[in-house]
From TrEMBL:
It comes from Acidisphaera rubrifaciens HS-AP3. This is ABC transporter. GO terms for molecular function: ATP binding; ATP hydrolysis activity; branched-chain amino acid transmembrane transporter activity. SUPFAM superfamilies: P-loop containing nucleoside triphosphate hydrolases. Residues 6-232 form the ABC transporter domain. InterPro entries: AAA+_ATPase, ABC_transporter-like_ATP-bd, ABC_transporter-like_CS, BCAA_Transport_ATP-bd_LivF, P-loop_NTPase. Keywords: Amino-acid transport, ATP-binding, Nucleotide-binding, Transport. One of its GO terms (biological process) is L-amino acid transport. Pfam families: ABC_tran. Belongs to the ABC transporter superfamily. Signal peptide: none annotated.
Amino acid sequence: MSAPLLETRGLVAQYGDTGALFGVDLEAREAEIVALVGANGAGKTTLLRAVCGLLPVAPDQVRFDGAAVGGAPAHRLVALGMAMVPEGRRLFPSLSIEENLTLGGWSGRRGHWTLARVYELFPVLRERRTARPTTLSGGQQQMVAIGRALMANPRLLLCDEISLGLAPVVIRDVYAALGAIAAQGTTLLIVEQDVALAQRVASRLYCLRKGRVALSGASAALGRDDIRLAYFGM
Ligand code: ATP
């Protein structure tokens, strides 16, 4: 088996004096979809932020393509091939859809993903390219957030709760796009509240509880009851 593209070893993170992650070991391989599940406050968002340089962590705690990159500045990690689709999308409201997408590419890498390819993946964005993000539906806004991250040509795409607040039919479309992105060779680490959905789309799953990995394994091998137990700790 190939070496993991992303590896965390004993990852710890804290906010001031309060710990949020207490030694998380996780790995994700090339073109794999890995899901993080867990209750509110379990540390899922913190893990994504620690991986992509938004929280101070020790170099050895995050390895990317074999290199120790923990705590490296976010812009350097983008240049190395990480991109994040943040919770709440964080689009630039005064810019057009196309400007939002184009901005995603400025500090990134050249590669498969261009504006044309993002529009192929999400044709509705081409139709709405001169519109402002606030005039789009929630699902379309999420597509812009994903497209903007793709414009950096990431090898690893971190997605935080992209299904939140979306209708089931829209969630299906967005996840179909994530499948296409992984098939193109990108590794995905996704935070997903809906455990059943996470199990369907991800090859492997990590369940966090109170900042620790309570359960991990191949999605197909994990039983609902095991996950429920790990999730709630009961
Ligand atoms: P959610 O589903 O609610 O987003 P989560 O699993 O993503 O939950 P985190 O947001 O990573 O959890 O939070 C982990 C812990 O860190 C929680 O106890 C939370 O209160 C705390 N925390 C998160 N962000 C901050 C912050 N900016 N300042 C202080 N504490 C924080």
